[in-house]
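ARCHIVE RECORD
Type: protein–small molecule complex
Small molecule: pyridoxal-5'-phosphate
Source of inputs: curated submission
Record status: active
Notes field left blank by submitter.
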Amino acid sequence: MQVMPCSREWRANAVRLMDADSRRSADSHLIPLKMTGFDGVDIYLKDESTHPTGSLKHRLARSLILYGICNGLIGPETRLFEASSGSTAVSEAYYARLLGLTFTAVLPRSTSKSKIEAIERQGGLCRYVDDPSMIYEEARSLADCPGGYYLDQFTYAERATDWRGNNNIAESIFQQMSLERHPVPRWISMSAGTGGTSATIGRYILYRGFCTRLCIPDPEHSAYFAGWSEGDGAMRCNRGSRIEGIGRPRVEQSFLPGVVDAMIKVPDAASIAATHVLSRMLGRRVGGSTGTNFIGVLWAAAAMRNAGEEGSIVTLICDSGERYADTYFDDDWLREQGLDTAMATQFVEESLERGYLRPELLSAEKLRVP
Ligand SMILES: Cc1ncc(COP(=O)(O)O)c(C=O)c1O
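STRUCTURE (tokenized, with ligand):
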């Protein structure tokens, strides 16, 4: 880790630029959603696709770069590097440009074209690796150069975010819920990429003493579910996740198992079917990780019904589906991947109408609630 010699003036101005930028932005909306079969359960979607760089990663990029500046690690000559599945890099490229710094993203070759275009539009450079599990090493070794700084979202996401408040995503959710019929959600459903967002939400729930429980729905090719259920942080998965942004080949340091109340394992066909159904309900496309989150909502709503509970559930729209026209919304891509979303779509629709969860929407590994 190199300490960057740099003037107080540069740092103060960099923080001012970032604050001015956030002052020009509004908070994301919290959208109520009607689910006919689940009377007494109110659903809300926190729409993170409306940030200037189109995803929840706008928050993280800001936190990571402020963390670097205020720890004296980023200065005017710094060259920024990151390992990313795409969304974080779009947002980091945006902030790098704001500060006049260069930024290079290391991405899996399978990253969607529209994310790559978005990074390049922000002035970022892209490097590719064939094996998604190699992004970390490649980014770290590229950053081993004069002025190089590896942002390392997978390690620093949880600690760069002000989890006690400062209008983080959790505080924003609870504040926006405060005048609702059931202001304290029974469940929040949020999938994990770095695990940083779920860590912030989970810590905030515990810090404020809310009775809200946190469910993490994990996609097919990911080490998180097994790592959490077995209590083994060394778990690995040898295939990259098909749900961009979530699911990791290893249990990342920013994933905090102790704040999680339940995990479910979601087949990719179910995530994508839920993406399609929710997109139709909203009249606009959402991304694949939002579909995975939505299966978590169905699971939580069904659990509440079985227990005779009424209340609210919150989840996130992580990004827009416009980024995935060539994948989740492309029949040829779905066929190539061997994903039967027609059947899964029927199961999602039936679950919504009848107010239960079709068991086929969960993987055989099912769920774990300690
Ligand atoms: C589209 C999308 N959804 C969800 C996530 C997961 O968020 P987190 O990294 O905070 O776990 C990411 C992370 O990159 C993402 O890009």
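CURATOR ANNOTATION: The two ends are 39 Å apart (CA to CA).
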